[in-house]
Amino acid sequence: MQFRLSFRRLLFFKALAETASFTAAAQRCGVSQPGLSAAIRELEDELGVRLFQRDTRNVRLTPEGEALLPLVEITLNNAEQAAHDIQDLIQARRNNVRVIVVSSIASFLLPAVLPDFERNHPQVNVEVIDAANNAVAERVYDERADIGIGLGPFDLEAFEPTFLFSDRLVAVVSAHHRFAAYSEVSWAEVGLEPIVCYHPSSHVYRMIDQALASQGISFTPRSTFTFRQSLFGWALSGNAVTILPSLSLRETMPSGLVQVPLIGPIISRQYFVFTRRRKALTSQAEALLNHLCASLISRNQQ
User: What are the CA-CA distances from residue 223 to residues 199, 217, 230, 231 (Å)?
Assistant: First the structure.
């Protein structure tokens, strides 16, 4: 026989066993006395045994009821603990907000704007993950992250982006290079110089290639590198020009280098904060999203 015991009936049984009174047990459980009596009869019918001996004065457990009581107590205690564990898990998930960002944002902008949010929302755990731009969008779409910050454009069927700011490409040269005295330099001029840059898989490489192609110049870099410090080293030597986004240069560029704005055309990267379309954010994630929008836009307007 398959039993489908009701927790409600087990609660009523425990209350009646402890109070030895239908009236007191019904008051404790917040039900009518007839309702509690009916539930106890249903439990007895389901188990096929009498659990209480009843007379006009007393209600007491039968031997079967005494054997059942400790088992019921264990079952109810386990259920209560499980409920608390589930609530704790849900609350932890609500309080944990995952933000995935491109490294240029993770390296210096988020450390500047997150502390204010964390001071005002101490219960929220913000987990920051850096990744390549295509991985940022993938993880937000797959819901492995709540919020993304990356480079547009975005598929508007899949994401809800908010524009943050533009990040202009500039030439970075040694202070002794002839371009260092220029107020701006054209892509046509830069294209005649040895250029070092990031690897062809990078977003910046593709932008350089497209900009030079617009001037009828085939892009053949002197060397390509993974790390910015390698690019800085070559530029410092005076033997090459590197081309980088300007946004983080004031925090990361070593002395002895100069950034020169590029024109003809002006090329910029567009940064957005975005979420997956039609995904409901927790209140904590919504608060962080609003903070990031306001703080990053304001910081880059200064």
Answer: 9, 17, 10, 9
C-alpha angle 11-14-19 in degrees, rounded to nearest 5: 125
Which residue matches tokens 């209600």?
59
What digits encode the pLDDT tens for the residues 264-291? 999 999 999 999 998 888 889 999 999 9
Give the predicted TM-score (pTM) of the model. 0.66
Half-sphere exposure of 36 (CA within 13 A, CB side): 22
pLDDT one-digit tens code per residue, 181-233: 999 999 999 999 999 999 998 889 999 999 999 999 999 999 999 999 999 99
d(CA 56, CA 73): 27
CA within 13 Å, CB half, 46? 13
Chain length of the chain? 302
The full 3-state SS of 187-240, as one line of letters, equals HHHHCCCCEEEECCCCHHHHHHHHHHHCCCCCCCCCEEECCHHHHHHHHHHCCC
C-alpha separations of 16 from 13, 32, 61 in Å: 5, 13, 9
Nearest to 173, CA basis, from 161, 184, 157, 163: 184
Token pair, residue 23, equals: 């009236």
